[in-house]
Amino acid sequence: MRSRVAALLALSAVASCSYVSVSTPPSTIASWEWPTYGHDAQHTFTGETTLTTASVTRLRPSWRFATGDAVTATPTIVRGTVYAGSWDGYFYAIDLRSGSLRWKYQLQAQHAVTPYPGQNPRDFTSDGGLVTASAWYQLGDGNRPDLVIFAGGYTLYALDASNGALFWRHEYTGRPEQPPDPDHDGTRIFSSPVVAGDKVLFGVDVDGQRGERGYIAAASLATGDPVWQTQTDVDGNGRVLNDGCGSVWSSGTVLPSLGLVVFDVADCNFSNPPPFSESVMAVRISDGTPAWIFRPAREDVTCDTDFGATANAGINAAGDASFLGVGSKDGTYYAIDPATGRQRWSSNVVFGGFSGGFIATAAYDGQHVFGSTGLGDFGRFEHGDQVFCKPSDPRDLPSQEPTAHAFDASTGKVLWQKEGVASFAPTTVAGGMVFNGLAIAANAITVRDATSGTLLAQVPLPTACWSGIATVGDALVLGTGSSNQGSPDFIIALTPDGTPPVTPSGG
Hints:
This protein has strands at 59-67, 76-78, 81-85, 90-95, 101-106, 136-138, 147-152, 155-160, 166-171, 194-196, 199-204, 215-220, 226-231, 253-255, 260-264, 280-284, 290-294, 312-315, 321-327, 332-336, 343-348, 363-364, 368-372, 381-382, 385-386, 404-408, 414-418, 428-430, 433-437, 444-449, 455-460, 470-472, 475-479, 489-496. β24 and β25 (385-386) form a beta hairpin. It has no helices and 34 strands. Helices cover 0% and strands 33% of the residues. It is mainly β and 507 residues long. The strands form 9 sheets. A 4-stranded antiparallel β-sheet has the order 1-34-33-32, with no helix packed on it. The chain has a 4-stranded antiparallel β-sheet with strand order 2-3-4-5, with no helix packed on it. A 4-stranded antiparallel β-sheet has the order 6-7-8-9, with no helix packed on it.
């Protein structure tokens, strides 16, 4: 079962580049933009930046856009507009240059999701508010406008990117064969959607609600209606159980030439019964049928060692995948053959547990993997007492170090590690630097040299950063807020000396 604190979260290397100042054609998205969670459908979290190791030491807020609650979804940035949803129940479009509001859209209420917008004080173990996942930017095709596609609670939305008008919406509840029940169903789409062809692909999470189930789904890009569902809460005979299991927090990682999308599945009541609990699985984009399943050779009796982070993939220009890997809450990053699902290597760095291990998504730059681990085996209480996975193991601690890690992507060898920087936020790599928000050590983000791990800058923020960091031009754009921090929170752009952001297009 997901750590409630941790639940929020969850190509080649790109160096600092020289750009030609040209306008982006209307039918394309430039490589320096940030159009989805993790930058691309392979969730590499590898961006482009004009920042340097010198200029990051001068990062200051260019602007701060105040929201009514936390922003834990990584912002999407296309054509000078920042798109992000907040726990306050709104989805925002903000001008990248000035930080001014272009439009906002109020989401459908789902009262079973807590915290409520602006609720403060509140339970620090909250799963998070209505919007916890990033938007996908989908270019128009002549029959429809450019869209931003995202989730709020169990509802999937597509809005006109230019003005926020509703294009379609559809509910994907924990019992899709029954009418929606927003007052009692806390089901959420923590999964940031991805588009492949005419389908929107995503996972559904019920977080242990009895009588409901998680699953993987494909929706029609044209209408939002269901195309197929792959049931992940089933027994060995394929019978749907509706026992609160099968939750999918991860986003879908697309392997184009194989026609596959890869998700991973959480545990089931602190255990991993077959066939799908605590597994990584590839399903066919065409119809959702499983192509392969990877389950680590370990037993989970009481340890809560879910998969929740999204898989990283490396593909070439033809769409052929050469790398696939994902971290688990067992403190291990696994590299998997994209075609067969067989393990290539694994590298364990901490014990993991309830709020530990790899909770958020790592970054892959074509040669290396960079990722941060969470707190440790902390946060599970029964009758007021802290419960540990394996008390006899000296590594099973509430706080586990090290917490920042770099691996050789071909072998799994640990290249460098750092302590004291536990994170529930995805890691970004760009311009030979690694960017990450801290969980509790400080209200700040860190910037490190990707080769050595040397700390280049620690940039203070008004509140904690549990969102990913989007790189665009000379700006870092991120959200602030956490499970114990309500209003005020912000969407923030950081630039050298706090000047207005400058992008390769001149914006």
